[in-house]
Amino acid sequence: MRIIVPIKQVPETSNVKMDPVTGTVIRAGVETVVNPLDLYALEAALRLKAQHGGTVTAITMGPPPAIKALKEAVAMGCDDAVLVSDRKFGGSDTWATSYTLAQAVRKLGAYDLIIAGERATDGDTAQVGPGIASWLDIPIATYVARIGALAEGRLTLERLVEEGYQQLSVPLPALLTVVKEIAVPRLPTLRGKKAAKHCDIPVFSAENMGLDPSFLGLKGSPTKVVKIDAPKVTRGGKTVQAGDDEAVSAAVGQLIGFLEEKGLV
Ligand SMILES: Cc1cc2nc3c(=O)[nH]c(=O)nc-3n(C[C@H](O)[C@H](O)[C@H](O)COP(=O)(O)OP(=O)(O)OC[C@H]3O[C@@H](n4cnc5c(N)ncnc54)[C@H](O)[C@@H]3O)c2cc1C
Fold this sequence. Notes:
alpha/beta
């Protein structure tokens, strides 16, 4: 089974700052990590490989330092990794990002499964996984919480939905996005770290993938960030004083009265 896992390098902090002029994420000077939710995709892929044999390839689109994320994936147990990197990709929205990643997957040749994270902790759109599937015209199952049997080219899955779990089977090749419930990500091993140190990571560029420039980067991105605003939080609350135990029940009564007045209870 050949499995491809798209992973994204994201700022370490959850306090992502935006450039108010360009409307894009400020990445300069911020420590980066593998998108935490992508570790679950890597783990799911590595478990499937242990069960069915095959290979796991990690792939990321980003600037050259994103190679650090790929090395971490190899240290976890991936067989190889690919960096998709070119100045022409700068400023890509999710449409252009998923187009570029889908073309990179095509360049890799035959595959059975693509497993992406549920969403990236910085951009947070959850659009790139479904976008890749759409460009490749393959079935997609999002929010996968359990992967079951593989039989006659179909994989049995359970999707996390609001009411519980939805069971389905998808024909391969397919793309899954997985939720945290799928498995606990393993830590890199010493052997894996050594493999990561010595592995060669090819770079796919716009030119060597033969991509249509009008689909790439900022120019090829239909999303335009018009304005960014930080929401103003105004709390017109009520403070109730309760100096001693006796005053507490009166204070609770006042608070309930306040909430009833607002129609909240
Ligand atoms: C107008 C515009 C301009 C932008 N300019 C820039 C820019 O200059 N530089 C920049 O870095 N970002 C830029 N972005 C953000 C960029 O669109 C997102 O970083 C990217 O498309 C991923 O979207 P997301 O973070 O919402 O990922 P999600 O869709 O939430 O990610 C879901 C999953 O997709 C996979 N995935 C996502 N991104 C990647 C990736 N790059 N490589 C491999 N797998 C991936 C992972 O498995 C991830 O868990 C821009 C966005 C817009 C709208």
